[in-house]
Q: What sequence folds into this?
């Protein structure tokens, strides 16, 4: 049996989004620190990104750090702020070989200068890659994203650069962090939780949802394949009627 025999290549989701949930709970069950869980979760991102790319997925967005995560204990936040550096150390060479393009979505005004420069460096180094786009949502919150988009549109209208009749869904799309990315087709959340948690609210408008019971560090290649096969059984109607 071939590795991806049951996955229909002509029915692949173009854009998969994943809420990386359960790192701390996974670690606690093993008597380890939450930081250890986040470390293992970061390593798993590489595994799943490479698998998604090999399957033919064109875009993958992951929820790495939310705007609400700043409420967590300082020690945990300090560790999470080291993840961009860990990301570069672990993935840089392999993503270059696999031709994966990396971009970051989210606020950058609250990050330190080192992280801002590092994100820009990673985006610049992978900008010409032609493989899957890995969109890492870091200090991301969808309500803030939409609010900022509205402000930018209002400012352009006020200056006369945009006419009221020209403001449509496409214009809104162009002012979001995810401009250039297609809508999400499949939203996966690990750890058994069933909510969006302020993640890509606009982009998930017609996404199919898949909730995996396993925590993120335990979400492996077979779990991803299972989610995609489940997606391929869905009858997507997009608000209309379809046989």
A:
């Amino acid at each position: 049996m071939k590795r991806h025999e049951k996955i229909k290549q002509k029915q692949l989701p173009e854009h998969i989004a994943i809420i990386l949930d359960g790192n701390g709970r996974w670690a606690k069950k093993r008597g380890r620190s939450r930081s250890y869980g986040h470390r293992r979760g970061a390593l798993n991102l590489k595994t799943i990104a490479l698998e998604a790319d090999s399957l033919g997925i064109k875009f993958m967005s992951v929820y790495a750090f939310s705007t609400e995560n700043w409420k967590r204990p300082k020690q945990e936040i300090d560790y999470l702020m080291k993840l961009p550096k860990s990301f570069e150390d672990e993935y840089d060479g392999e993503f270059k070989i696999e031709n994966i393009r990396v971009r970051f979505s989210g606020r950058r005004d609250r990050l330190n200068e080192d992280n801002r420069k590092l994100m820009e460096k990673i985006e610049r180094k992978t900008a010409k890659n032609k493989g899957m786009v890995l969109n890492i949502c870091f200090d991301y919150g969808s309500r803030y994203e939409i609010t900022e988009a509205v402000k930018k549109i209002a400012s352009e209208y006020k200056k006369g650069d945009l006419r009221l009749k020209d403001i449509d869904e496409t214009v809104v799309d162009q002012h979001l962090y995810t401009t250039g990315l297609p809508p999400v087709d499949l939203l996966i959340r690990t750890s058994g939780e069933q909510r969006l948690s302020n993640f890509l609210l606009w982009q998930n408008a017609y996404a199919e949802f898949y909730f995996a019971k396993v925590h993120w560090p335990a979400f492996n290649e077979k779990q991803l394949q299972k989610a995609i096969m489940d997606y391929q059984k869905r009858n997507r109607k997009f608000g209309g009627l379809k046989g």
The first strand starts at residue 15 and ends at 19. Residues 13-142+183-231 form a domain with the Undecaprenyl pyrophosphate synthetase fold (CATH 3.40.1180.10).
